[in-house]
Structure formats: C-alpha cells, structure tokens
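Each record in this resource describes a single protein on a pair of labelled lines. An example record follows, reproduced without changes.
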Amino acid sequence: MFDKMMVAIDQAEITNKLLDAAVEIAQKKKTQVTLVHVSQEYVSNGMTYVPENFLEDILNEMEKAGLEQLQQAESKLKSAGINPETVHLKGDPAHEILNYARDTEQQLIIIGSRGLRGIKEMMLGSVSHKVSQLSHCPVLIMH
C-alpha cells in the first residue's frame, strides 16, 4: 500500500513509538523509509537583554541534538533490516515536512504528537495538527 513513507523525528520520548510503527509497516512491504528532522532556522529575540550569539548557540545545540536523534533513529531502523534515508531540514517544521512530503511524493507521514490541548495548543500550535490538516497523503499521528 505504501511504497514511500516519511517519519518526522522530533521528540526523543516518542521517537521509539514512531520507529516501531515504521518498522512494522516497512517490513510488510519493503517500503522506502525517509527519516526527517526539522530544526528551527531562527528564534525571534523579544528580550533585548539576551545576547544574539546566545540564541545562535541555542539553535546550534538544538540542531546538533536533532542530528543525533536522526543518527540514532537510522541505527535502530538499520538493526531491523531497513535502510532509511535521512534528511535534515531547517525552517518551520510543519511547512518543511509538508513541502518535503509533497516534493518527494511520500505516501504516508508518521509523526508524533505532544498531546497539547486547549489553550496551549491554540497558543503554541501543533505541528502534527497542521500536517494532518494540510497533507496530500495519509498521516499517522503517534501519541
């Protein structure tokens, strides 16, 4: 059913669930798996007392952590006999995931949910919600 599947890696605590689902789906039908992580490109500095280089350092650390997550996820899938492609993107996570999925003709997106509800979801937004609403292909949201 799915020849190409994308797994959006973000939070360490849910990554194992995402990878378990990907393995189960991919092993049944030799599906091509792409692991994707999106790093923020910038952080708006609304606090004038925070040095700009401090924010850049934070972004660099976040990017490094994201690349490590991708590497660990790749290792886990390889140990299950799946040879995934890994992709690191920068920008708004929902838009980057959607654009990459469309451009590479993905047939399924697997993504995690932080479980935000109510005011928090309204204020912070939800990447998984945006992706599920705007995707051209099915989206599996793992909690």
About this structure: The mean pLDDT is 87. The helical segments are 12-28, 52-79, 93-103, 118-124, 127-134. The radius of gyration is 16 Å.
